[in-house]
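Reviewers asked in the last cycle whether our approach scales beyond single polypeptides. To address this, we selected a multi-component target totalling 418 residues and predicted its structure end to end. The input consisted of the following lines:
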Amino acid sequence: MERSKPHSKIYISIVHQLNEMILRDGLSTGDRLPSERELSERLGVGRSSVREAFRALELLGLIETRHGEGTFLRDFRDHRLVELLGMFVIQDRQAEHDIMELKSWIESESIHRMFIHSEEKLNLLFEDIISRFNNGDLTSISDVMAELVQASGNRLSYKVWLVLHEFDSNTQQPANMPFDEMTIRSIQQAIISKNHQLIHTLCKKPQYE
Amino acid sequence: MERSKPHSKIYISIVHQLNEMILRDGLSTGDRLPSERELSERLGVGRSSVREAFRALELLGLIETRHGEGTFLRDFRDHRLVELLGMFVIQDRQAEHDIMELKSWIESESIHRMFIHSEEKLNLLFEDIISRFNNGDLTSISDVMAELVQASGNRLSYKVWLVLHEFDSNTQQPANMPFDEMTIRSIQQAIISKNHQLIHTLCKKPQYE
DNA sequence: TTTAACAATTGGTCAGACCACATAAATCTC
DNA sequence: GAGATTTATGTGGTCTGACCAATTGTTAAA
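The resulting structure, written as structure tokens, was:
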């Protein structure tokens, strides 16, 4: 025995053993993992090593740790791949243009994607958005856009958009688009009538080059 | 003092501070980060917290730690997010679909973006691609696509594409597109003639829904 | 000069302590 | 007895200090 990984560090082997444990016991989203102390004892390693493994998986979004409760398996779709990469990949400050461009491109693509939805489905979506707007829940046109991108169905795109938005909301000032019910209604109409031109006007894409 | 992030865990804030430090000092691949003990002292936190941050970033492949030497920044392309996700996130067709879809979007958008380039500029680009193809430098149609996405000018899109490609090359088998000079030439012609339809055919996008 | 021994630095791991948070059990109050 | 309150226990969060192991640079010996 013990051929697992002689060269590896302890916390790496713990990650692997956790993986095996999850597969073997058929654990799934929401299930609780053993406590740090129990794992430490059961695997014969220090608690700090267990924590290093847990923290790594937590940063990735694969597990969720709740203070005083324990550690739980998370829905893998909540993974933080995008954020993490963004943090270390989007390092060029001068690439703000790239960020804005990709962001508005995702917006445009997401909206176009909603053309396939039925009118009643779209109406339902927009009623919800409007009510939340009147409720003060959505406080900017970006919030509305977030709803639309999310509603388009591609969760990955949505995550990418969130990251991009976070970046350029720190550097760019919005206020380039009115934020009232009429604007939202016109977006609704543009989608329902599949009016490419109007959408392009509403969500003005930045010029290439 | 000390109201930076009362709700966040220490190791998370360390990750952020590391990110800021990297940006501020302009560190890049291969550069050395401060030692665990120095960071611990400089940030006023325990060494174990610094280690949790380092171990998390190391597992993701964003940094590399060498026993007795120190911790170094890695090329982001070496990240292991994909394997890790694949390890814990097995069967999710929707996630895979999202990835492929976003990837295809970027490909398609990048190619369309090249419509604004002059014909001679495009010819130069493709001469280079063809010569590298004959040279054995590009070994798959994906390599060609990488060149095109990169040439489209948005470096961020390119980086995102690289990540997505890494993922679905690990799960999907390619071989859905011939890889010869004629195919490349036809892409070239499609761009020059601004033939949306042909591009759509060549780079078959996945079906929505 | 070359080589060998040594010291300093750095990561790897562990043990124990203490705090903060959450929940269930025991207790008190009415 | 029902409800509110206190207590006990378990769990994560963090720090400190210790020791080992690998690497590198310095020093001393050949």
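Chain A touches chain B through 45 residues (CB under 8 Å). We regard this as preliminary and will revisit it once experimental data from Aim 1 are available.
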